[in-house]
Amino acid sequence: MSVEQTLWAQDATGLADLVRKGEISPVELTEAAIARAEATRPDINASAEPLYDAARTRAKTVDRSLPLAGVPFAIKDLGIAIKGVPTHGGSRIPAWLADVNSVLTDRYLAAGLIPIVTSTSPEHGLRLMTESKAFGITRNPWNTSHTSGGSSGGAAALVAAGVVPVAHASDGGGSIRVPAACTGLVGLKTSRGRIPLTPLVSESWYGMVVDHALTRSVRDCALLLDLTHGPDLLSPYAALPPKGSFTAAAARDPGKLRLAVYRKSPLGLPVSAETLVALDTAVALAREGGHTVEDIDLPFIGRDFFADFASSVASAVAGTMRAEALRVGRSVLGDIERATRVVARFGELVSAGETYAGLQRLHAASRQLIAETAQYDAVLMPIIAHPPLACGGMDPKGADELIENLLDKLHLSALLKLKPLFGQMMDKSLWFTHWPAIQNVSGQPSIALPVHVTDAGLPLGIQAAGRPGDEETLLSLAAQMEKISGWLCRRAPLRVPS
Q1: Can you tell me the distance from the alpha carbon of 364 to that of 66, in angstroms, rounded to the nearest whole number?
Q2: pLDDT averaged over the chain?
Q3: Distance CA 201, CA 389 (A)
């Protein structure tokens, strides 16, 4: 088997084992990943910044005894810093050049990973499709006319296309789980406080953003979490510590679990028949594993909950645009896309008092959610309401221009008149995915499971949400479902190396 075929066939754990045994070298793996990145670039357009020279240098000196020594990797062009590498955030705002690594970057390097590229993101992570004016459209390796999801769509495309076996990703409203669902990958949204975002920020979007990875295998997801979790000195809080290692959790039988399934759209929006088939597939796998599954309802998670979530995000985006303006020394409203500008301007219209009150309402709903689902080891629910959309399928088609023109005519005192308009914008933003933001608000962990492929040949994953701090149960359940289903053997049909 060639190095290129090995890169395609193995997960990160398997590649690192081959490196330790001397059967393959970090230099060979790095060159194969770079070649694969270049070969697939025209098809998927998932790389923001190439890091080829640094990768080649690192591959020559990496300690082969490290847990993931020599494994090619990608870091998202948003949220964490690599010293000396431009960070664009998917935007046409002048790039930021970091003079320090993020703590998470240092942990990746300490594990032996070799970053070869930064991966594309929609502008400031605000869309669930990875399309931007700055970098164009990132495409799904399963069918390049369809989306790889967002905002970690570049990371997902690189893993699904066999460029790297694992990639850094982040999730503020589904941005790990939606790309995982679209590309047939495992994607764990970690508990709040599990992985530090320092020193760039202590928390992002009022604590709703978390970082981890997109992977092919559950064991890679667990191992990478073992190597990167734990608070930094600047962390404002930390998740509950695990009882053991995450790797051990993924390797053991979960026992008999009590599971729930939530089938409804919390926004009352349509859910495709394919999504419900995917959910039924997950339920069948869980029952085959010996677990009980019962239907539940969450009536207190509805439109008001998502309106408060969307309003909080808008407030955070407004603050980010102020920080960017300070950094570049001028207004950036002319640099950003109209959709981003509309969100930021809504954020400026929401008072500090209303933002605080909205966050308190979200916290109250989270307490009720956690209390009422505490009896279950995990709750199965959809991630995306429809199979992966065609590229451009969430194009606002003039709606953003209409909303911005209305904003120009309204005074701050007219905020109450904006609420119906804000609701329409929220529906347009979230109609593709109605569920993932629930766990970003509550701080619970949730793992995307690649349980289904549609008749059209597109992946459609679902998620299992767990108790706060309990990634171990999720990883154990996911590994069992992976073994029963055989999904680990699936690969996207994009120019398989010969």
Answers
A1: 44
A2: 94
A3: 33
Residue 413 is predicted with a pLDDT of: 46
State the catalytic residue, choosing from 76, 121, 170, 217: 76
- Residue 411 and residue 63: Cα distance in Å, rounded? 60
Q: Which of 151, 366, 476, 485 is catalytic?
A: 151
Helix (H) or strand (E) holding 298: none
* Interstrand relation of 462-466 and 378-382 (parallel, antiparallel or unpaired): antiparallel
The residue count for the chain: 498
Catalytic site includes residue 245:
no
CA–CA separation, 186 and 475 (whole Å): 10
Q: How confident is the model at residue 412 (pLDDT cuts 50, 70, 90)?
A: very low
In this structure, are residues 58 and 103 in contact, taking their beta carbons and an 8 Å threshold?
A: no
Neighbours of 493 (CB within 10 A): 10
Can you read off the two tokens belonging to residue 315? 């407030």
- The CA-atom distances, in angstroms, between 88 and each of 204, 307, 437 are 17, 28, 24
**Using the 8-state DSSP alphabet, how is residue 188 labeled?**
E
The active-site residue out of 47, 102, 132, 175 is 175
Structure tokens, 240:
């509950």
**315: nearest Cα among 380, 362, 264, 262:** 362
What is the maximum span of the chain, computed from C-alpha positions, in angstroms? 68
**Cα–Cα nearest to 225, from 233, 235, 213:** 213
| Residue range 168-180, pLDDT digits in tens | 999 999 999 999 9
Span 116-161, pLDDT tens digits: 999 999 999 999 999 999 999 999 999 999 999 999 999 999 999 9
Token pair listed for 190: 């970690």
CA atoms within 13 A on the CB side of 348: 16
Residues 104 and 111: their CA atoms lie apart, in Å, by 11
Q: Is 175 a catalytic residue?
A: yes
The answer to whether the beta carbons of residues 310 and 318 sit under 8 Å apart is no
Residue 166 CA: distances (Å) to CA of 102, 147, 445: 18, 19, 19
Q: Is 419 a catalytic site residue?
A: no
Please report which helix (H) or strand (E) contains residue 57, including its range: helix 52-61
Query: Any idea which residue has 């969430």 for tokens?
Result: 394
Tell me the helices (H) and strands (E) count for the chain, helix number first: 17, 17
| pLDDT at site 429 | 76
What is the secondary structure of 249-272 as a DSSP string? HHHS---S-EEEE--S-TT-----
